[in-house]
Amino acid sequence: MTRIPHETSGEPNPLHALTPELLRRRTSMKWRTYPEDVLPVWVAEMDVPLAEPVVRAVTGAMERGDTGYPVGSAYAEALAAFARQRWDWDGLAVERTAIVPDVMLGVVEMLKLVTGHGDPVVVNSPVYPPFYAFVRHLDRRVVEAPLGADGRIDPEVLEDTFRRVTAGRERAAYLLCSPHNPTGTVHTADELSAVAALAERYGVRVVADEIHAPLVLAGARFVPYLSVPGGERGLSLMSASKAWNLAGLKAALAVAGPEAAADLARMPEEVGHGPSHVGVLAHTAALREGTAWLDALLAGLDANRRLLTGLLAEHLPAIRYRPGEATYLAWLDCRGLDLGDDPAEVFLRHGRVALNSGLPFGTGGAGHARLNLATTPGLLTEAVRRMAVALRR
Fold first, then answer.
1. Radius of gyration, alpha carbons of the chain
2. In a 3-state reduction of DSSP, which class is residue 127?
3. How confident is the model over 283-305, as pLDDT tens digits?
4. What residues have CB less than 8 Å from 361, skipping those under 6 apart?
5. Which of 151, 107, 148 is nearest to 252 (CA)?
6. pLDDT of 104-123, one tens digit each?
7. Average pLDDT over residues 248-254
8. What share of the chain is helix, strand, coil (3-state, %, to 5)?
9. How does the average pLDDT of the chain come out, rounded?
10. For residue 211, which of 172, 257, 250 has the smallest C-alpha distance?
11. pLDDT value at position 9?
């Protein structure tokens, strides 16, 4: 059972730690893409200080001059221990892992192993926009199997899609987002078992992006795809980057089910040269020693989720928001505001607040926007205030 996040971890809420002035000094994408008068609540960067174990690992490497090439299995061992502790999963075998530069580049490498040029890759729209961009850049064909109205995988739609894409005997893959971005849906064991059964029936290979797995809030339970019956032929990508705000320290792990080990073994050796050695050290430290910080973050995210629900009810009641069970991303249905297909553009132009447009998320994204609630309560409140101001244009 996933541990319930709580405030008694001994760590302060990291979402309360930084001021707007400190955040404006950051030089990454979130804070430098837009002019200074724009409040950014868009891309998946959190407004938090780093966990102290991560800081020690990185500064220690700098002091030692330890900035060479990555080697060894420490990252995989740390992830396996984390999986046992947090998800009661003993099936992450270190010998069936491989280090990759990041999750999306790992997805590309896994798809190379199980599909060929022009083959279909099924995705559940609306979904993380790089699923479209990276798959198409790989010369694969994206095929949507839209989520149901409840934001969950629709097994009938998925089966119909699998049937269609395999009718010509093409190899096909299913790129599963688990937990789902942008909805925050956490797929249940029964849902994932049904996915595995359909994949087996139609010969579709499952590649699971599980980058948000550590970010499951109280009341929900993350189930690794490789742990369900039929998941043995699956491939998974995992990383500490989202949960500990380490996107700039590149590293991730590809994990194979028992029946996919031979596939993973065919991955070219040079792929493992892409991750950052310092990134590996940081991710390993996060998984081994950063769980108290993570619990404090999860409690803070849960509070922000409740805060956002109240703010929207008070200031923007026409926005439909179903709080997600995971991630720090809020998927806002703005169609009731009559702002057209791209409400994020209206909020930016008239409210000077930057959200992600729903359009790049594919079918189901029009009229929606994605908001990053991993910020201070004050900035989250200001973001909603600006959104409300935009309606008075």
1. 20
2. coil
3. 999 999 999 999 999 999 999 99
4. 125, 126, 127, 128, 129, 182, 368, 370
5. 107
6. 999 999 999 999 999 999 99
7. 98
8. 45, 15, 40
9. 96
10. 250
11. 60
Altogether, the residues listed in the chain come to a count of: 393
Residue 1 pLDDT more than 70? Answer: no
Residue 2's pLDDT is 37
The pLDDT, as a whole number, for residue 7 is: 43
Structure-token match 């922000």, residue found = 304
Contact indicator for 344, 356 with CB cutoff of 8 Å? yes
Q: Which residues pair with 176 in a beta bridge?
A: 208
CA distance 38 to 123: 32
State the pairing for strand pair 329-333/368-372: antiparallel
Give CA separation, 264 vs 81, 207, 354, in Å: 21, 12, 39
| Three-state helix/strand/coil letters over 146-196 | CCCCCCCCCHHHHHHHHHHHCCCCCCEEEEEECCCCCCCCCCCHHHHHHHH
Query: Roughly what angle, to the nearest 10 degrees, separates helices 52-64 and 277-289?
Result: 150
SS3 259: helix
Give the Cα-Cα-Cα angle 371, 375, 380 (nearest 5 degrees): 65
The model carries a pTM of 0.96
The residue behind tokens 């200074």 is: 36
Sheet holding 329-333, edge to edge: 320-321, 329-333, 368-372, 356-357
